[in-house]
């Protein structure tokens, strides 16, 4: 492999690309990586981490209100967007530098610039030709905006994190996890929020009870969710933005935030010209080893559009490096991957939805509980937690666990281990709960919920 500059060259220094490059280098490979933005990718720079900081910030409004019911006296309070942004930006800068040090420490050469494929072994990085025996595509995804009149007046999550001032009135477009998260953040920080979604219910693809519960709770908190609606045109005025919907409704706002999905970032990479097969949406087609249709070219992370989660990209990058450079064949298991939505209240799930379970195994037993969290028996806040377990009636195996409520992600993470190991409902029942917690409800639900319509269909 001496005829190449590198044994491995990675295009994209996000979570998957950085993990793959470091592990490959630790296996003894000569590794280079290119990036045309900051090192760390979507999650660290413009996604999971800054968003979670904003979720924390937005929770304080309710915490302050509830504190009075627990005997605390609080004086005047206000939120400073500029102060928060400065703190958030400082931490993102620190994380960016950590990623640089991780690459340096592993001996990975960082080449600044945008990488484009020249041939199966050559990458052009802003005019510099780099050759490698193996090439890994890890360019992630990019926010999607529809082609409607005035779309240039709208922003995406990328630009949202750079706003210098908090918008007083916001329209969030979309019904997926990014949309509900930003709607909750902005509502919690005091903005007037309208969420517009063209579908019949938010969070398409999630369990129906999760979708209905979250929509109900978000509306209680003040988010104006308008389903089966879509924007036709956006016009900028002296006082803000005028939005015209397809049904003729006209709305005035200060900011239109599009969160209608992300597309694999493959445009301009010249992948098809070198023989890499792409899906219609631009995603790179790969096999179970993350290998593309070109033998020496691989791809991991959101650019493959398998499961678009940072931990998945990290594992895909790790398994690729171990397999190709470590002499240890490893295949990423994409089944029963837990996920969370940091909405308000939060959502977390692992395994199959009720509909998926019925389609896969037929008869299932459903265990479901809806209750007011203990903290709100004093605060008086009208907020409900929903928990749900889906069980294969024939085998007693737990097929899915779903939750809407405070700390859902922290609770489901542990249950994900049980589901991954094939736990049964009897295993859940035999586990002693921790009292008083919300989590104990998952091991104390004994009576199956009977849905007459679902039972009749079995």
Structure description:
- The protein has 458 residues and is an alpha/beta fold.
- The protein folds into 3 domains: 6-142 and 263-325, FAD/NAD(P)-binding domain (3-Layer(bba) Sandwich); 151-260, FAD/NAD(P)-binding domain (3-Layer(bba) Sandwich); 339-457, Enolase-like, domain 1 (2-Layer Sandwich).
- The protein is 32% helix and 24% strand.
- A hairpin with a 5-residue loop joins strand 17 (339-341) and strand 18 (347-351).
- It is globular and about 70 Å long.
- The protein starts with 5 loop residues before the first strand and ends with a helix.
- 41% of the residues are buried.
Concise structural overview:
With 458 residues, this protein is of the alpha/beta class. It has 13 helices and 21 strands.
Major sheet: 7 strands, mixed
Average pLDDT number: 96
According to CATH, what is the class of the largest domain? Alpha Beta
Tally of contiguous helical segments: 13
Provide key terms for this protein:
single chain; 458 residues; FAD/NAD(P)-binding domain; Enolase-like, domain 1; 21 strands; 32% helix; globular
List the helices and strands and how they pair.
Layout: E1 6-11, H1 15-26, E2 31-35, H2 41-46, H3 48-67, H4 81-106, E3 109-112, E4 115-119, E5 122-125, E6 128-137, E7 141-143, H5 157-160, E8 169-173, H6 177-188, E9 192-197, H7 208-220, E10 224-227, E11 231-237, E12 240-245, E13 250-253, E14 255-258, E15 262-264, E16 297-299, H8 310-325, E17 339-341, E18 347-351, H9 354-361, E19 364-371, H10 376-379, E20 385-392, E21 398-404, H11 408-420, H12 425-429, H13 452-457
Parallel strand pairs: 1-2, 1-6, 2-3, 6-16, 8-9, 8-14, 9-10
Antiparallel strand pairs: 4-5, 5-6, 7-15, 11-12, 12-13, 17-18, 18-21, 19-20, 20-21
């Amino acid at each position: 492999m001496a005829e190449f500059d590198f044994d491995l060259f990675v295009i994209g220094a996000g979570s998957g690309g950085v993990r793959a490059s470091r592990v490959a280098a630790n296996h003894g490979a000569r590794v280079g990586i290119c990036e045309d933005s900051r090192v760390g990718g979507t999650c660290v720079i413009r996604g999971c981490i800054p968003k979670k900081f904003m979720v924390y910030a937005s929770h304080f409004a309710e915490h302050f209100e509830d504190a009075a019911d627990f005997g605390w006296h609080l004086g005047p309070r206000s939120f400073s967007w500029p102060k928060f942004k400065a703190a958030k930006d400082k931490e993102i800068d620190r994380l960016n530098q950590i990623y640089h040090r991780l690459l340096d420490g592993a001996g990975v050469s960082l080449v600044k610039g945008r990488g484009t494929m020249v041939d199966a072994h050559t990458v052009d990085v802003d005019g510099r030709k780099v050759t490698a025996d193996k090439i890994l595509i890890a360019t992630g995804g990019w926010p999607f905006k529809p082609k409607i009149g005035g779309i240039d007046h709208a922003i995406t999550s990328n630009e949202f994190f750079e706003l210098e001032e908090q918008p007083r009135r916001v329209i969030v477009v979309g019904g997926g996890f990014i949309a509900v998260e930003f709607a909750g953040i902005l509502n919690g920080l005091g903005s007037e929020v309208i969420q517009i979604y063209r579908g019949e219910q938010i969070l398409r693809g999630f369990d129906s009870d999760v979708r209905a519960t979250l929509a109900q709770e978000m509306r209680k908190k003040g988010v104006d969710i308008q389903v089966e609606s879509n924007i036709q045109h956006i016009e900028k005025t002296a006082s803000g933005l005028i939005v015209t919907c397809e049904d003729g409704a006209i709305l005035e706002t200060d900011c239109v935030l599009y969160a209608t999905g992300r597309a694999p970032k493959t445009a301009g990479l010249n992948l098809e010209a070198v023989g890499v097969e792409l899906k219609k949406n631009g995603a790179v087609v790969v096999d179970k080893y993350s290998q593309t249709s070109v033998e020496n070219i691989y791809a991991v992370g959101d650019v493959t559009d398998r499961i678009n989660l940072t931990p998945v990209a990290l594992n895909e990058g790790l398994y690729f490096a171990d397999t190709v450079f470590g002499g240890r064949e490893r295949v990423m298991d994409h089944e029963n991957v837990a996920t969370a939505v940091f909405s308000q209240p939060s959502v977390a799930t692992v395994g199959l939805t009720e509909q998926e379970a019925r389609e896969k195994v037929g008869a299932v037993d459903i265990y479901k509980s809806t209750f007011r969290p203990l903290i709100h028996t004093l605060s008086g806040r009208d907020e409900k937690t929903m928990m749900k377990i889906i069980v294969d009636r024939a085998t007693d195996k737990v097929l899915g666990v779903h939750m809407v409520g405070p700390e859902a992600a922290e609770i489901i993470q542990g249950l994900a281990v049980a589901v991954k190991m094939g736990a049964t409902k009897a295993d859940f029942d035999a586990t002693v709960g921790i009292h008083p917690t919300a989590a104990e409800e998952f091991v104390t639900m004994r009576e199956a919920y009977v849905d007459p319509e679902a039972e009749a269909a079995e």
